[in-house]
Structures are given as C-alpha cells and as structure tokens.
Write a structure and sequence with these properties.
selenocysteine, six-stranded antiparallel β-sheet, about 525 residues, alpha/beta, seven-stranded mixed β-sheet, oxidoreductase
Length: about 525
C-alpha cells in the first residue's frame, strides 16, 4: 500500500529505473516549504527549494521566507505592537509617569525601517539554515513541464531544468484584487503596506477579512483616519458574536465602518507620497452610490492560491477550478502519487503558518523516516490581532449549532475588565470570553473564544487543553492564576440562557479590581 502511495509500485511495474537530480524538490520558500525541506535534508535526502516572488503591481518584492515573515504575521504583529504602545503611553500618565504635555507623535519611516531590518535578518537566517543543511536553494520561478521535471526561470530570464522523485507544492497565496477600474494602478494590498516608504495618511480599507481588520486597527492605533468598507459581514468563518464585538470596539476607538457598500472605481486626483484618490462605491442594497477621498486605499478582500501558472496541468495535478485550491488526502498527497501539497493552497484546510510548518515537518518524516503521524487540522488555535485581540480554538457558535443542534449545546460566557485597564479606566465591559460545550459528550469543550489583551498567549493554553479532550468539569476544577485574563474561563460564569451584557458588577471578584484575600 505504501509503495502504491509513493508511486514506487508504478515505477516497478512499468520498469522505470530513471535516476533523478533530487530526491525532493519543494516549490515555495514559505514557512511550510522551508520546514519540509530542512526536515527532509536532516533525514539524508538531496533537496532543492525554489522560491520566487512575482512583483506586486506596485513593484514590491521580498526575500526568502514567504508571506508570514515578509508581508504577513511578523510585520503585522510588530505594527500591531506599535499601536498598543501608543495606548500604553496614554495609560502611563494614569500610572504616575510624567510625560511631556505635548502630543506624542509617531514616525512611520522609523517604524518601517526597524520592522524591515528585522525581516531582513530573518531572510538571511533562512538562507543560512538551508545552506547549513545542504539544501540547494535557487531564487527562480518553477513550472512543471512533466510530472517529474520542472523548468526554473530566474529574474534575468535564464532557464534551468531539474528532476526529482517527489515534489511538494507550497506556493501559498497572494492578495486578491477587485477587477475594477483603478484597483491595480492606485490601490495597495498587504503585500505593499509593510514596506510603504511614507505614512499612508487617510486610509480606506476595503474588505472585512482578518487582514482588513488587523491593518485597519493598527493604522487607526497610529493615529490615522481609517474607514473600513464592508460588503456583508465581518470575519467570515469566525464566530459572528465575537467578530461583531471586535468590530464594535474598533468603531468605539475611531475606526469608521462603511457597511453594505462595494467599490466600483478608484481614480487618482493627485499624485504624491501619499497622493489623493477618489473612490466611488455602490450600495449592495440598492442603486445608491457614494464618493470619498483618501490618501491610500488598501484592498483586503481575500487571497488566491498561487497554483494557476506553475504547470500543474502538465503534471496531471487536479485543482479546484473555482478557487485554485488543491485537493489532497489525509497524507497531503495529490491525485499524482509523487506530488504532495501543504499550506494555504490546500482545499478546506487552515491557512495558518504553524499549520503549514507542522504539516511540512510531519510529511517529510512520513516520506523519509518511516513515521506515521499526520497533521491534525482539528482544534487549531488562532488569533486575530485586532486592537482588542480575538483568540479562538475549535468551532464557532454558528458551526457548532449546525453540527450538533442548539438543544445539544451549552454556551458559557463572561464579560470581564482586565486589571491593567482599570486604573486608566478604559474599555470597561468590552472584553469577553465564551466556551461552547457539547452536552451529548460529557460537556466537552468544542469551541473557545476570547476577546481581550494577549489573546494569543491566553488561547494557546486552552488549545492544548482542547487537544486533550477538555470538559467543562475539568475547567471548573482547575485553579486559575490571579489576577490574569486567562482565569476568566476558570470561574463561575453565565449560561447561554443569561446572555452577556450584564453589568460587570455581576462578575466574580477575580475579574474585577478587588484585592485578593
């Protein structure tokens, strides 16, 4: 069976004894591709990695490491942290820090340079790691010309050809444009924002994805005028109660939301750094059109898989024609036995860096070390770095109701006020958490949701517990660390029949500013 899956059986039956240039070629130098290639090399295999960044319409490119390192998780989190520091500066006065009375200003260029210097050090580190592990890395665009052979084209147009026994596709995704007049000419995406040489100024963010809300959130936190244009709902696929609470908090802190509109045209009024743009938008509920002027328009309506121009048809790999995603089995194997795929291009899987890394490592071990452990795509924790961060693990309330029915669920929820927010007297009754339990399975926790500071740090521990089959009783029997935000799920809380919104005075003392005894 394993010989059939690996394609070895077919070679034996057909009498194929071809010698390939490499044991493994990985197409894509992002988090998943790098993890897989390094693991395979450690297991003694001859490995090549190809990575090439097609320039954005604005001409932006970046180094080795993929989206997360260059134009995703890393710069996003650092700029989010920049915005949080601005809030901390305001809070500091309430804690006794005597700061200058004049307004503290933020310098975009200083931040951008520092962030990109850090990214540059990571790019160098990845190249060094590949070299140290004897992985052959080439900065070229890969296309299949046969199922075991690729053409690699570098930025000068020079072509080379390489063969391998096995291939792993890890090409990731790129931001989607709008297909309206002026979108590629005048708008930017997250592929451009983090290296933008000038402050974006008054910004329109188009979209309601996590990228849209994260970018809109930290830009507003830097003191910019930000509007988010939303076609339908916030954070599609996430718990909608949590998404709306995160959006409401952003609105209360200065982000404007333009709901039920879609852009139809973007025009340049004045060139500059930044310039001036006019956006025309149409209502989704009628014929009404509106116009607005902005310095920068950021498109964040989703991402598309980078699978359309790498010759997958020449290799015989099946692709979903609607979204470019690649269907695989539970071993990340495509319909072509010697070609595998990992990361964001997979059909129906999480588009998260740690998932791609885990899948890549485990795949290499299965292929070359006789291991059997597969990547588990269930109960994967994640965090949306909105100004008030949203961490989640497991099912949304909507998905849980769809799978189990409302009568078979119990939802426990709490509003809370972090201790660090009390002295500056801000965001009272805005932080919120809930767990969704399956009454048919011993009140097992099937959904965890948290809106508050340090959401990633809080959610990670609950993710481990859910992997171990966490139940409500086990939560109730766990002693929390006081005073922390993480303990909010370990205290008596309201049932779903007593929906949230009650005064914080109804909360236990461990979540209020009451000294422990």
């Amino acid at each position: 069976m394993k010989a059939h899956k690996d394609g070895v059986l077919q070679q034996l039956l057909c009498g194929e004894n071809e010698v390939y240039d490499y044991d493994l070629i990985v197409i894509g130098g992002g988090s998943g591709g790098l993890a897989c290639s390094k693991e395979a090399a450690l297991l003694g295999k001859k490995v090549m990695v190809l990575d090439y960044v097609v320039p954005t319409p604005k001409g932006n490119t970046w180094g080795l490491g993929g989206t997360c390192v260059n134009v995703g998780c890393i710069p996003k989190k650092l700029m989010h942290q920049t915005a949080l520091l601005g809030t901390s500066i305001q809070d500091a006065r309430k804690f006794g820090w005597e700061l200058p009375e004049e307004t503290v200003k933020h310098n975009w260029e200083t931040m951008k340079t520092a962030v990109n210097n850090h990214i540059g050090s990571l790019n160098w580190g990845y190249r060094k790691a590949l070299r140290d592990k004897n992985v052959n890395y080439i900065n070229s665009y890969a296309e299949f010309i046969e199922s075991h052979k690729i053409k690699a084209t570098n930025k000068r147009g020079k072509e080379t050809f390489h063969t391998a026994a096995k291939f792993i596709l890890a090409t990731g995704e790129r931001p989607r444009y709008l297909s309206i007049p002026g979108d590629k000419e005048y708008c930017i995406t997250s592929d451009d924002l983090f290296s933008l040489p000038h402050c974006p100024g008054k910004t329109l963010v188009i979209g309601a994805s996590y990228v849209a809300l994260e970018c809109g959130g930290f830009l507003a936190g830097l003191g910019l005028d930000v509007t988010v244009m939303v076609r339908s709902i916030l954070l599609r696929g996430f718990d909608q109660e949590m998404a709306n609470r995160a959006g409401k908090h952003m609105e209360e802190h200065g982000v404007k939301f333009l709901r039920k509109y879609v852009p139809v045209k973007v025009e340049e009024l004045e060139a500059g750094t930044p310039g001036r743009l006019k956006v025309t938008a149409k209502s989704t509920e009628g014929d009404e059109t509106i116009e607005g002027e902005y310095n920068t328009v950021l498109i964040a309506v989703g991402r598309d898989a980078c699978t359309g121009k790498i010759g997958l048809d020449q290799a015989g790999v099946k692709v979903n024609p609607k979204n470019g995603k690649i269907p695989v089995n539970d071993e990340e194997q495509t319909n072509v036995p010697h070609i595998y795929a990992i990361g964001d291009i997979l059909e129906g899987k999480w588009e998260l860096t740690p998932v791609a890394i885990q899948a890549g490592k485990l795949l290499a071990r299965r292929l070359y070390a006789g291991a059997s452990l597969k990547c588990d795509y269930v109960n994967v924790p994640t965090t949306v770095f909105t100004p008030l961060e949203y961490g989640a693990c497991g099912l949304s309330e909507e998905k849980a109701m769809e799978l189990y029915g409302q009568d078979n669920l119990e939802v426990y929820h709490s509003l809370f006020w972090p201790l660090e927010f009390t002295v500056p007297n801000r965001d009272n009754n805005k932080c919120y958490s809930k767990i969704i339990c399956n009454k048919l399975d011993n009140d097992r926790v099937i959904g965890f949701h948290y809106l508050g500071p340090n959401a990633g740090e809080v959610t990670q521990g609950y993710g481990v517990a859910m992997k171990c089959g966490l139940t409500k009783e086990q939560l109730d029997n766990t002693v929390g660390i006081h005073p922390t935000c993480a303990e909010v799920r370990l205290i008596p809380d309201q049932l779903s029949g007593e929906r949230a919104g009650q005064s914080i005075a109804s909360m236990p003392s461990s979540c209020r500013n009451t000294p422990a005894t």
